[in-house]
Design goal:
Low-confidence stretches: none
Radius of gyration: 19 Å
Number of domains: 1
Order of helices and strands: HHHHHHHHH
Strand content: under 5%
Mean pLDDT: 88
CATH topology: Hyaluronidase domain-like
Structural class: mainly alpha
CATH architecture: Orthogonal Bundle
Largest sheet: none
Oligomer: single chain
Number of helices: 9
CATH superfamily: TTHA0068-like
Distance between the termini: 70 Å
């Protein structure tokens, strides 16, 4: 029997996805992994999983427009990266059915409901369940909709560095545009 090694970031993603339902943390974990281990192309299974977590984060907050955008993009990527999903012990057909159900719920404005990803490797599930217990989470628990810190997590982080980088990029673009419009 072959033992499959899954990236630690993916395991942490699964622990948060099914344990404390911290989809913002799921996004952060996989985004860091994606940046460090890929060419940062937008077409990847990692981006599809990130978008799924972000869609659920928006859905839980009642941001149906944001959720609809993210779930649609996630579905497109998961469809393209079926072999990669299978390598991550995800039953892609069942995952796409789940994503379609979420998409339908979002489009008609149904309230958020916790979901379970269709994992196919019992040893991966067991490992994630053990890590959940060590972190004080219960695998498969429902999202705590009364936890404002969890629901509004994006508002609690320090964004000063991101804002500074965006301002610099905007300033640089403005300078480039000014140079390109110079008639001389």
């Amino acid at each position: 029997m072959t033992v499959v090694h899954y990236p630690d970031a993916y395991i942490q993603f699964l622990v948060h996805f099914h344990g404390d339902r911290d989809y913002f943390e799921c996004h952060e974990i996989l985004e860091e992994y994606w940046k460090e281990h890929t060419n940062r192309g937008k077409n990847s299974v990692w981006v599809g999983l990130i978008q799924l977590a972000v869609a659920l984060y928006h859905h839980r907050r009642g941001n149906f427009k944001g959720a609809a955008t993210m779930i649609k993009q996630s579905k497109q990527k998961i469809t393209v990266f079926t072999p990669e999903c299978n390598n991550l012990a995800l039953d892609t057909r069942s995952l796409l059915e789940l994503i379609s159900e979420i998409e339908g719920a979002v489009l008609i404005g149904s309230p958020y409901q916790s979901v379970t990803l269709p994992l196919t490797d019992p040893s991966l599930i067991n490992l994630c369940q053990q890590k959940c217990r060590r972190n004080g989470f219960t695998w498969g628990s429902e999202s705590n909709l009364a936890n404002a810190d969890l629901i509004n997590r994006h508002m609690l982080r320090d964004r000063s560095e991101v804002i500074s980088l965006r301002k610099r990029a905007l300033l640089n673009r403005s300078k480039l545009n000014a140079v390109s419009k110079d008639p001389e």
